[in-house]
Design brief:
The protein is of the alpha/beta class. The chain folds into 2 domains: 186 residues, D-Maltodextrin-Binding Protein, domain 2 (3-Layer(aba) Sandwich); 102 residues, Periplasmic binding protein-like II (D-Maltodextrin-Binding Protein, domain 2), CATH 3.40.190. The protein is built from 10 helices and 13 strands. The strands form 3 sheets. It has a 6-stranded mixed sheet with strand order 2-1-3-12-4-13, with helices on both faces. The chain has a 5-stranded mixed sheet with strand order 8-7-9-6-10.
Length: 297
């Protein structure tokens, strides 16, 4: 498989359109394919996993890749949607992908699988002794989120707050952007925030440092299922090159070293070939809530 994919990719490089970098072909040393990542956890760990994936992809395809780890989701969207694009691939979270698709036609090809599922849930956390019992108790409280475009840490929680009678724009004492899910856990544990939202169960990321974190922090609410993140490409990317990368990633995900890299980067256990329509139910949830994706561009 590896030899076949590499041979195919080398042939593709010879026929893809010239782009940027003084006319250098995409996927070469002078014009690598850039893959944008957003750190949902520790930046160093995500970077390590991303670089391992890039190296495996280079071995599998013969193409050259560069990794771009941004500080927030908005920067990764901008990298995909700029003209010309700064990144040809991305691993955006659910809401950011839907936004990038609306804004510039970004297209998903692979969806991550964690614990056997292509979807996940968010959770509301607070200290067990805080007196907070659910979304409706957050009025006047300080709330920690990973990022303003984080699906499980803000988009769905903000809708849940509204449904419980708390306006997230005016009803909270303060909103703190912690930068990652594990940072949200740490902030709530340390009392810097009254409550916060993360994916299930981000509390475990702090267990090595704080052995009692699962007891100190209570899970008060769970969100409905949210489609997982995955791998997306810019609109108009050469179809054969894109397919070569998709096939290579699926093959890599079947290997021990590939699974280790996926787990290091994003705690992915596997990848599944799913397209844009996989996210339609999530779009329907946003539309039902009155949220207009176009207004957020």
């Amino acid at each position: 498989m590896r030899k076949t994919l590499r041979t195919l990719a080398l042939g593709l490089v010879a026929v893809v359109l010239l782009a940027g970098c003084g006319g250098a072909q995409l996927g070469t040393e002078n014009n690598p394919i850039t893959w944008a990542f957003v750190p949902s956890g520790d930046t160093g760990t995500v970077t390590t996993g991303a670089e391992e994936l890039a190296a495996l992809l280079e071995d599998e395809t013969g193409l050259v890749f560069d990794i771009l780890v941004t500080t927030e989701n908005a920067s990764a969207i901008e990298a995909m949607c700029s003209d010309p694009p700064e990144a040809q691939m991305s691993s955006l979270n659910t809401f950011s992908y839907v936004l990038a698709n609306e804004r510039c036609g970004a297209e998903t090809e692979l969806v991550a699988v964690r614990f056997g599922s292509a979807s996940y849930n968010g959770q509301l956390i607070a200290r067990a002794d805080s007196g907070i019992t659910g979304w409706g108790d957050l009025a006047g409280k300080t709330f920690c989120r990973a990022d303003p475009l984080s699906t499980s840490s803000w988009i769905i929680p903000s809708l849940s707050m509204r449904a419980a009678g708390v306006d997230p724009d005016t009803g909270l004492a303060e909103i703190v952007d912690a930068g990652s899910h594990d940072a949200v856990v740490a902030a709530v544990y340390n009392g810097d925030c009254d409550a916060g939202a993360t994916y299930v169960d981000a509390r475990s990321t702090l267990e090595e440092e704080k052995a009692d974190v699962m007891d100190v922090l209570a899970v008060l609410e769970l969100t409905a299922d949210i489609p997982n993140d995955g791998v997306q490409f810019i609109k108009g990317m050469d179809a054969e090159m894109k397919q070569t990368i998709v096939d290579a990633l699926l093959a890599i995900a079947e290997t021990e070293e590939g699974q280790e890299a996926l787990d290091t980067a994003y705690s992915w256990n596997a990848l599944e070939a799913l397209g844009d329509d996989f996210y339609d139910p999530f779009r329907q949830v946003l539309q039902a809530s009155g949220m207009n994706i176009s207004d957020l561009q």
